[in-house]
Amino acid sequence: MEGDILSGLMRWQVSVWAIGALLGAVALMARGFANRLMREIDQRFERLESMAAEIRRVDAELTGLRAELPLHYIRREDHIRDMSAITIKLDRIHEMLLMIVKETRHG
């Protein structure tokens, strides 16, 4: 009977050790998974930060281009209006020249 008690106690200890080892292995795997997950999250944040820096750079460049645009280019409507005004002035000059030529011929 003493052998049965020792045998039962040994089985119980082995079971506790096996369960403890299994729980330790699961905890170790969970820790490794959590560490890997945290590394991936950190890498994603680094990529997001670099993308945000690139967006800020492009935004600043775009703002600069918008500020320079009126200095180098004119709108289509403005060009058409200016060309119409020049055409009208040239037509008036042409009419005046024709009048001068007619007066000098008849004069």
Polypeptide structure, described:
This protein has 107 residues and is mainly alpha-helical. The chain contains 2 helices and no strands. The radius of gyration is 45 Å and the shape is rod-shaped. It starts with a helix and ends with a helix.
Topology, pairings included?
Layout lengths: L1 H71 L3 H31 L1
Task: Give me the count of strands.
Answer: 0
Cα-atom radius of gyration: 45 Å
Percent of residues in beta strands? under 5%
Shape: rod-shaped
* N-to-C order of helices and strands: HH
Question: Biggest sheet: strands, sense, closure?
Answer: none
What is the averaged pLDDT score?
A: 89
- Uncertain ranges: none
Explain briefly what this protein structure is:
The chain has 107 residues and is mainly α.
List keywords for this structure.
single chain, 107 residues, mainly alpha, 2 helices, 0% strand
